[in-house]
Amino acid sequence: MVARRKVAVVGVALSDCGRVDDATPYALHAQAARRALADAGLDRSLVDGFASAGLGTLAPVEVAEYLGLRPTWVDSTSVGGSTWEVMAAHAADAIAAGHARAVLLVYGSTARADVRTGRRTGTLSFGTRGPMQFEVPYGHTLIAKYAMAARRHMIEYGTTIEQLAEVAVQARANAALNPEAMFRTPITVDEVLSGPVIADPFTKLHCCVRSDGGAAVLLVAQEYVRDCRTSPVWVLGSGESVSHAAMSEWPDFTVSPAAVSGRLAFERAGVRPSEIDFAELYDAFTYMTLVTLEDLGFCGKGEGGAFVEKGRLRVEGGAFPVNTDGGGLSAQHPGMRGLFLLVEAVRQLRGECGERQVRRGDGSLPRLAVASGTGGWFCSSGTVVLGAG
After folding, report:
1. How far apart are CA 255 and CA 307, in angstroms?
2. Calpha distance 101→374 (Å, rounded)
3. Using CA atoms, how far apart are residues 59 and 280, in angstroms rounded to an integer?
4. Closest CA to 368 of 350, 351, 385
5. 4-27 pLDDT tens trace
6. How far apart are CA 199 and CA 377, in angstroms?
7. Are 279 and 369 in contact (CB under 8 A)?
8. Residues 220, 42: contact at Cβ < 8 Å?
């Protein structure tokens, strides 16, 4: 029996992101992977674990082969945007148990370029079999499902469209500090509200951008940390949860599975939400940020609208910075964005974020962060608590 080991994130990287017209998804995977290994200062020969989803017929076999890896531990869990937090949890458990020494998580997508060149359409279909056969005939799309949930929260708790718009405004304010963000020009609440309606109550700026891009994260056992060029960021605790596939089976549109994954992650990390310095949350739509803040315990149920007001989520002057890179609403969103949350959280904890660097009240670097991904239409959630080395 191998004693359980501590697990650290030692390498993170993004591929080229935003508008990338001349690369394949495989190339973006490889670019992000090479950069993450270089960030850690480790050779790929150490990597014996690999996790990937969303590309190839035999994911992650095809991607591992493309990268020249022959892993003895693999994970191809695919639960939408929460995939990467769930994979990080699985990888940490495998390393802690001695089943792997170094696990590489990689993602890459040309979602924007594929639509631009006609290789795919802008409509995302989840099929018409199984539970979906009872909903597809009614024609409600992915965004419509999120919009319905947002409207329910507004009815139940008095949340206003202006409060939801504040999420987009503050995400853009953070993106303005990020030279890698796709959109950096500040916006106002009025500009969010006056945009074209996509699905009531969401206008265009309530919705994430469509981009190309990739990301990679390298996790290792504690004995390899001394060989790295970076400061370790420790995986302190994690949780995962699934809720529903059919909207008709969702008990409460105002509660996401983050209510479960967050509780588990905080319990396992031995920390309270009040101790967290900043959060990276999945934000395909503004409502996702608001309800995830509630479900992770940063405010009470129904209090999310008031919580996001007065610039609270901003890096500059905000009481609780959220989506410090600009999030999916402004920085980048190439499909399943969960891995980007982990990259940004690690960079912030290592103090590498320049203008957008989060600081505690005394000016010191942050010590604790949470990354929480959401999949489907609040169908799944993965939450990871990270601590600075």
Report:
1. 16
2. 28
3. 26
4. 385
5. 789 999 999 999 988 988 889 999
6. 14
7. yes
8. yes
